[in-house]
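Cross-posted from the bioinformatics board.
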Amino acid sequence: MYRVELRNISKKFGGIAALKDVTFKVLHGEIHALAGENGAGKSTLVKILSGAHTKDSGQIFIDGSEALIRNTQDSKKLGIGIIYQEFSLVPELSVAENIFLNQLGTGFLVRWNKMKIKAEELINSIGFDINPSLRVRDLSIAQQQVVEIAKALSEKVRILILDEPSAVLGTREVQKLFDTLTKLKKDGVAVIYISHHIDEIFQIADRITVLKDGSTAGSLLASETDKKSVIKMMLGRSLDTMYPSHNTFSGKEILSIENVSDGEKVNGVSFKLKEGEILGIAGLVGSGRTELARALFAADKIKTGRIFLAGKEFRQRSPGKTVRAGIGMVPEDRKQHGVILPLTIKENISLTNYKSISDVFGFIKTKKERENTIELIRKLSIKAEGENQETLKLSGGNQQKVALAKWLNRDCRVLIIDEPTRGIDVGSKVEIYDLIFELSKKGVALIVISSETQELTGICDRILVMRKGKIKSELTRKEFSEEEILRLSILD
Amino acid sequence: MIKTDRKISFQRVLQFLAKHNTVIIFIVMLVISAIVSDVFFTSANLFNLIRQVTPVGIISMGMLLVILTGGIDLSVGSIVAMTGVLCAIFTSTMSLPVAILLSLSCGILTGAVSGYLISVHKMAPFIVTLALMSIVRGSGFIFSKGAPVTVSDNASALTDFGSGSFLGFPNPAYIMILTFILTAVLLKYNVFGRIIIAIGSNEEAVRLSGIKVTAYKLSVYIICGGLSAIAGIITTARTSVGSPVMGAGMELDVIATVVIGGASLSGGKGTAVNTLLGVLILGMIGNIMNLINIPAYSQQIIKGLIIIIAVMLQRFRIKDS
C-alpha cells in the first residue's frame, strides 16, 4: 500500500494544461525525488497535495483511502507538511514564534519559555543551532530555510514535501538536511523532494519520478538508473549539447574601463572588452560583481575611474544614456528588476525601445508592436499564451527570456547579463546559452556574471575572477578550471 | 462535486463583481436614483449634476496619472482656490487670455514644484503635497486679502462661458469631456501612459530599462497642477467670484473618485473610463441625497460607506496561481 497515491491528476490554468493525467506514488519511508524542468508541473503537483491548488480531475489516496483535499487545512489534517520555495515566515517574529505560529492559541497566555525550549530542541534535532529568540529577519537565508523545515516538523507529519529546499543552502547544510530526511524516512515518513540538482537527487532519493510538460516521463529506482538518463528524460535530449562549442570571435575593442571604483564594493577595476567577446566575471556573492555591473550601466554612480566606449570617453552617464549608447543590462534580480511582473510580455519588451514602435507624438503603432513582440517570443521560444499574457504567470525560465528579449529588442553593442540562468531549468539554460553565442557571432560584446562556475567555463572566452572589489586574476580559455576559479575567489 | 461547482460559480460571480465593480455600482446608483426620485432624470437635474462634478472630473484625470505612478497629490484643492482667485484678480488689469494663461501657469508651476521635490529629491509625495497644500492655500488668502474677488466686468466672456451651455450641456463640461478623452487616449495608445503605468508597477525596473523616470514623474504632477488650475478658473468663471475658500477638502473627493474607479493607491492600476464613472458615482450620491432631502451630515456618512463598499468589492479575486 502506498502512503500517497495520486491517480490521473489533471489541472488547467486558464487555457494551459499544467498537469495531464499524472500518476505519482510514494511508499512509506521512501524519499521520492520529483525532477523536471521549470514549468514541468512539479510545483503544481505538490500544491495539489498541500491544498494550495485544487485538482480538476483525478483521485488522491492517502494510506489506501481516498482523501478529499480542498484547502490547506484538509491537507494538514492528513499529516502533509510542505516547505515551499518561497518562505512563509513572518520576518518580524522570533524563530520560536514562527515555528509554533499555528499552535500559539492553546490557552489564554502564551508560555514563552516552554515554546523557546521546544523550538530549540526541534532545531537541534535536525542538526542545527539557532537561537529561538532571534527575529527571523535577522537570520541568513539558509537559517530561515532551517526554521521553515523546523516549522513543518513541529506538527506530526506523515508526508513531508520539500520544494527546492537546497537552493539557498551551502554544502554542509545540505548534508545536515539530508541526515534529517534520512532520519524521518526511518520513522516511516514519506518524503517528496523537488530539486533541480541531479547530483543531490542521486545522493538522497530512493526513487525518482520525472515530469515533462505536465505528464509523467518516467518513474525509476535511483539504484537502477543514472544521471545521464534522468537528464535525458527531463530534456528529451542529452546534456553533451549543453555548452555547444563555439569559435572565439573577437573584433575591435569596444569597451575599456580604467580604475573604476564606486566608493564601496568596487575598488579600482580595469578591463577591456572586444566586439563579439564573451567575458565572464566570477567571484563570490559580495565580491563586487553585481556592483561592477551596475556601475558600468550607470545604475549606481561611480566615484572614480573612466569608461571608454569605442575609444571615446563616456561621461555624465545615466541608465538612459547608457542604453542609448548601446549598452544593455539584464539585472541579477529577475523579479524585482529584470521584468515588471504585473505587465504583459509585450509591455515589458517594448519598454527598452518605445521609439521604434511609436510616432513622433508617442502614439504606439500597435500592429508593429505586436509583430515585433511575437517575433521575439518565437525567437526565444518563450512559452506563453500570447504577447498579452502577464509576465507574472510565466515560469522563471520564461521570465528570464523576457528580460533578455528586452535587450534583443534594440541593437546593443555591449550586453551585461548578471546571473543569466539562476533558478531556471536546464532546457531554458541551453536556449539562453545558444542566444548568447548568437549575439556574440553578431559582434555584440557580452559580460556574463555568474555564481555557477561551470556555466562560465562552458560559455566564456575569458574569465575575470573578482574578490573584495578587485580583479584578482584573469584567465583565458586554456587556463579555465573550476577548481582554480573557486580557489581564486575564496583565497586572498 | 455539486458543492465545488457551486463554489466555483459563486467565485465567478465575485470575480465578475470585482472586475466590473465600478460599472455595476454606477448602474445600481442610476437605478436607485430613478426609483427614489422622479426628478432625477429631468434634464434640469442632470444638467446640474454634470455642472457640479465638472471641477472634480477635470482634476480626477490628473490625479489618476499621479496615482498610477504610485504617488498622490493633496494640493489640488488649494490650487483651485489660488488660481481661481488669481484669475479673478488678473481680469481687472489684463486682457482675458493673459489672465487665464497666467493663472494656469501658476497651477503648472505649483505642480512642477511638487514634482521636482518628489522626483529629483525623492521626497514622499504625501508629505510634499501636504506642505504645498498648506502653502498654496495660504497664498490664495494673501492674494485675495482673505475676501472673495469678483471677476471684472471686462471679462464677461469668461463668466458667460462659465455659466452658459451648448447643445444642452454646460460649457465647462466640454472641457471635462476633452480632458477625459485625452487621458483615456494617452493611457491606452501612447507611450507616456504605458510608462506611467510601468513606473507605478516597478519604478526601478523601468529605470534599469533606460527610461528617464524622473521626467515622467515630474510631468504627472505638472499635468495635475495644470488641470487643477483649469478647474479653478472654471469655478471662478461659473460663479463670477474667485474665493480663497474654494476647493476646501476637494482633494479628498478627487482621490475618492479615483479609488472608486478601481485604481490602486500603490500605483500601476487604474483607467480613465472607470475614474470618470467614479466621478459620476460620487456626484450622484450627493445629488440624489439632496433631491430626497437627506441632511448634509448624514450625506457625509453615506458617502463614506459607499466608498468602503466600492473598495471592498474590488477585493474579491479568484485565487489563481
